[in-house]
Specification:
mainly beta; five-stranded mixed barrel; 5 strands; 14% helix; flat
Length: 74
């Protein structure tokens, strides 16, 4: 559990990751729609339009959707 003060400190220092969705991929540049607007970053690994990603330090990393996760019944 994080505190609001720590979260604010990370956001101001630029180290916090921002969640978003990939809107386009062209020429090695990925455009990601975030709550703060559209950003252009490099995508680590492969990705498609509509994928959820986390943006941090100018790079986007694909986030696994809950529908991709295996479900186990016990």
């Amino acid at each position: 559990m994080s505190s609001p003060l720590s979260d604010l400190r990370e956001m101001l220092s630029g180290r916090a990751s921002v969640a978003g969705r990939v809107v386009s991929v062209a020429n090695g540049v990925t455009r990601v729609a975030t709550a703060q607007g559209v950003v252009e970053v490099v995508l680590n690994g492969d990705g498609n339009v509509g994928d959820r990603v986390a943006v941090r330090d100018g790079r986007a990393v694909r986030v696994q959707d809950s529908v991709d996760m295996p479900i186990f019944f016990v």
